[in-house]
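Researcher: If convenient, please comment on what follows.
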Amino acid sequence: MSRPPQNRSRANTAGEDGDATAPATKLWTAMEPPPIVCFSQEALVKWRKQRELYEAAVISRCQESGEPLATVMIPAINTINRRLLKIFCELELKIQVDEMTNEKLVDAISKILSSMINDQLPNVLVIMSQQLKMNLRQKDVKARVLNYFDRFDELEQVLLYQDIDPTAKTNVSRLDDRPGFKKRNPAPAQGCLHCKGAHWVNDCPSATQGI
């Protein structure tokens, strides 16, 4: 008794006939780069992180698909509003918008991020906590409070002076050297607030400094 003929699948038939099934083509979705909407440092930090993720995704896609990177990667300069770019060029870079290139824009953003304002300003809270302390061993409460606020004013002046541009510091020194320029007295005219001596309360020998 003969066996019934086997039902061959289309895949087997195609394989025996030599007609290989064409591989499926992978469809890539369009990748949208993050736009530049503001030149504040906070916004640029966020933008750079998103831009790095975008560029990494595009590079990975091109390596797999064989597409030219230059045709897939959207430059950063194409992600910014034209009006905002014009204002940034004229006010910040002092150039015309037509002179701006993608390299110049990326370089300018890198410079902004490399000079973060948080790296330039001193940590006021740390300085105050370390150097501004009230001397509770001072029995005279009035002198204790006055000494505390005198030290506060001193620290404030020091911090403000450190934040001044070096050129401005030089100009201040020149003003002091002018003939007839009246310099600040080394001691207050009314004398020490604690003992009325010819010195500041912070230098008073009878009032212990509260730091």
